[in-house]
Amino acid sequence: MLCSVNTAVKGYKGELIMKIQIVYYSRYGSAKEIAYKIKDKLKADSISDITDLKSITGDLLIVGSSIYAERPDKKITNLLLDKEGLLKDKKVALFVVCLAKEAKVIREIEIGGPVYLRKMEEALNREPVAKKIFGGKLIPSLLSDDDYKRQEAFYKRLNMPFNGADITSEDEIDEFIRELKAAE
Ligand SMILES: Cc1cc2nc3c(=O)[nH]c(=O)nc-3n(C[C@H](O)[C@H](O)[C@H](O)COP(=O)(O)O)c2cc1C
């Protein structure tokens, strides 16, 4: 059972210092890599994989998910739905990591980064203080048999070669950091 710990501390002038916590879902490591870069650049206080999350300790919670089959991870969505009210007084920022960064329509279905981010925003049900769509990475040799077959079939349907991709960008991380610092 998750709990929320109130951790706001005061600086030497009596000002409140915001604690920053990062929670992410990553299956093959690219969202984890991005989450850790955010942690280092922001000097965040804590970071955890959603499956290891024990408590909400941040005043600013940065929640990110890699995208599989057009949606963010279910545990991440459940955290944002916040049935227990643990995020009530928290600032929340969101990010997704995917390959289809731009919105597009395939067979009359809208897909892409803005759609994935919107699913997280709908679960949160309020404006996040910052949000970002990150380009991810897909390395076929790392995939489980099932994921490999799914992706192979997907690319075949699109008549595209299945070679893997890496569209990660350090600049995107820096842009998000600037947005987060403005929201602190
Ligand atoms: C089985 C499978 C399904 C995927 N589905 C999507 C998708 O629906 N939309 C998308 O943009 N990217 C999709 N991707 C790409 C991943 O979002 C991308 O590789 C991401 O960087 C993976 O993050 P991770 O390394 O943290 O797991 C898929 C990848 C796999 C292997």
Brief write-up:
It contains five helices and 13 strands.
- The CATH topology, please? Rossmann fold
Poorly predicted regions? none
Rg estimate, integer Å = 17 Å
Tally of extended strands?
13
| Assembly classification | single chain
The H/E string reads EEEEHEEEHEEEHEEHEH
> Please, what is the average pLDDT?
94
Tally of alpha and pi helices: 5
The strand line-up of the biggest sheet is 5-4-7-8-11
Shape: elongated
CATH superfamily: Flavodoxin domain
N→C terminal distance: 28 Å
CATH architecture identity = 3-Layer(aba) Sandwich
Query: CATH top level?
Result: Alpha Beta
Number of domains: 1
How does the helix and strand content classify structurally? alpha/beta
Hey, roughly how much beta strand do the residues contain?
A: 25-35%
